Every structure is written in C-alpha cells, then in structure tokens.
Amino acid sequence: MEMNLNSQHQDNRFLAFDYEQVLELLKHRVIFKGTSQLFHYSVDQLQAGIDLQLEAIGIGGQTSNMNPLRTKVKKRVEESFAKKRNAIDPGKKLNKMKEAMAWLEWYKKVTLKEGGYYDSFKRSEYRGRDAVKSRQEIVKHQRILNRYWKTKVAEVEEMPQSKKAAFRTRWLYSGTKL
C-alpha cells in the first residue's frame, strides 16, 4: 500500500512539472544573450525565432552542420503559414460561384433577341469576335459552376448533415438562380 502511494506521488510529480523556471531561462536568454548574438548572422524574424528555439533546446549555435536543419524547419513553418493564409473560406468560394452565375444570367439576357440562349449558343452561322469571346467566357464560367456543384454534391453525399446542425440555407438558395 505504501509502495503504491509512493509510485502515485512520483507520477504526480512528473505531471505537475513547474515550467516557470524554464520560461524565465528562455526569457533571460532572449533579452540578454539571444538578441545580441542573433543580429550579426540573422536579420529575418522567422529565422531568428527558429535559431532561438534551437538554442533553447540545446542544439543551436552557429555551426554549419545546423544550416540544413534550420532551413528545413523554416520551410515547414513557412508552409504552415501559407496553409493558414490560403485556407479556403466557403463564403468566398460561394461568392465566386455567384459571379459565374451572374455571367450566365447576363448571357441569357443578352441572347433573348437572338432566339434565346440555347439557340444562340448552338448556332454558329455568323459570329463576330465579341460573340466568340463572350461564348468562351460563358463556357469557362459554365465549367467552373459544373465542377463546383459536382464537388458540393459529392461532399454532401459523403458527409450528410446531422439533424442537430443548423441548415445552411445560404448554400441552398445560392444554387437556384437558373
């Protein structure tokens, strides 16, 4: 019983490690030692932070054999930042799809006097430069919309919305323009 309490006490000691001393040491290195040593070989803030972290864990320094590690860590951090920066906002994507739908609506409106959008799109008797260019734009936007809705349908089929989740009417009503 006593041995069990001792082992339990040791486990709690490992779980409740006091990081205050480690943080103070890191702060001391950055304020007094780290910044003065950094400026003569590193101006980039990201690289300086990486160098300080490597130094703090004891594998830093100015040795040339550490350069591949530094560049690898820097590359990974930059990739991570890029992923966070370029995270796709579904609202932005939806707005782009609304623009593509506006193009199709415009084409529909413009081609009313030519017998409708279907007939004017299929007829190729006489076409000016502007008509060909507008047709290319319409085809581009049509393909973008087709791809978008195919991926959305596949996404919904893979992961149906739960009954408890709020219904996303913005996504629903955005696809009913045509």
Automatic annotation (TrEMBL):
Positions in coiled-coil regions: none
InterPro entries, alphabetized: EDS1_EP, SAG101-like
GO MF annotation terms: carboxylic ester hydrolase activity
GO BP terms in the entry: defense response
PANTHER family: FUNGAL LIPASE-LIKE DOMAIN-CONTAINING PROTEIN, SENESCENCE-ASSOCIATED CARBOXYLESTERASE 101
Pfam families linked: EDS1_EP (PF18117)
Source domain of life: Eukaryota
Protein name: EDS1 EP domain-containing protein
Domain EDS1 EP positions: 102-177
